[in-house]
Write a structure and sequence with these properties.
alpha/beta; globular; 24% strand; 6-stranded parallel β-sheet
Length: 414
Amino acid sequence: MYEVTLENNLQKVVLPQYFWYDRQPLPLVFPHNWDIKICGMEGDYLPILGQEEIKRKISNPIGTFPLEELAKGKKEVAIVVDDITRPTEASLLLPYILEALSKAGMRDDCIRFLISLGSHGAHTAEDFRKKIGNEIVERFGVYNHNCYENCVEVGKTKSGMVVKINAELMQCDFKIGIGAILPHLYVGYSGGGKLFLPGMAHIDTIDAFHSFLTPGEKGRINFENPMMREIEDALALIGVDFKIDVLVNTKGQIIDLFAGETMAEYSEGVKVADKIYVTKTYDDLDVVISNAHLKVNEGDIALLAGLETVKEDGTCVLIMNSPSGQMTHYLMRWFGKFIGGKQAVTRVQLPEDKKVIVYSQYKDTITFDPFENQEIITWEKDWVEIIQQLQARHGSEELRVGIIPDGTIQYIKR
């Protein structure tokens, strides 16, 4: 999918950017004598799912009956969709879901869309249109989840955590979820029931949920992770009927899809995800270019991937062109010099022996507020200037340079 070409005695690599905008690619040029390595993930070599295959997978669910059969006799439907921080193009899936609901006798005025925000910021109609398409926004009601109001207690998990969930969702007797299985710092892989907990929960429940993890448990897969056990308990209380999860390549194209009973489809999806997001890395990389693409509004994920891959005393260049900036996170981000969310702390110390350069047209001063020593980060808008800085620091002779096409979703295994 990505290759190094030679033009006018310079090497060129073209990376993806602006996924939720015009998707204009980003060409990068390097001196001809540098050793350029593409740190590609396995999923980039897989075929893209066509519409017929998407329909077939949705129509043949895992661990439950087909959607049309499940929806018969139901009165009110909530279709929960993940937010703009995830690359799920729900508009590609919805025609088949709505067709099944129509065949089951469901009227348009009994269907609503709820955006699973957790403690992320509210979306605009423009965001809705990007996620689910113009036709859906013009035809159905689409609503933001509000983690501070309009939530009801549905019970407690086995551990005793009080579960408060979006009241509109709980008024519906048929609940569908659409999301993506992607590598995740806390739960190993997002997707599955995480769309509902914490995605549709009250801030108090979200806060409690994020307190279940010790540092040694971070990133563990499935039920080795206590957060996943909380999710399974919450799903039983909420009563989710059908879930769809996509897996994507670094350009955001769907390369696999799992549908059906939430825990069953998620478990099968994670088995595949654990193979396709794995990324090839190289030793002794002087420079690593880590591109924040599909989750560009969580660019610090790509920064950590680059820092993990580059050698000691190397340079990480983070590409992060996000017109909308970094996401609002009411639980974990700062909202002033002195105030922040309930879990807003400066959690990460950047390594002093590595240099960090951010290549971005959209600098702002609060992007890296989770980092304690963000003052060591250099921002640049000119790629030629970055090349000159790399030459000044590492010399103008051959450099070993690794390129991570999308550091926000690639799984770096060392």
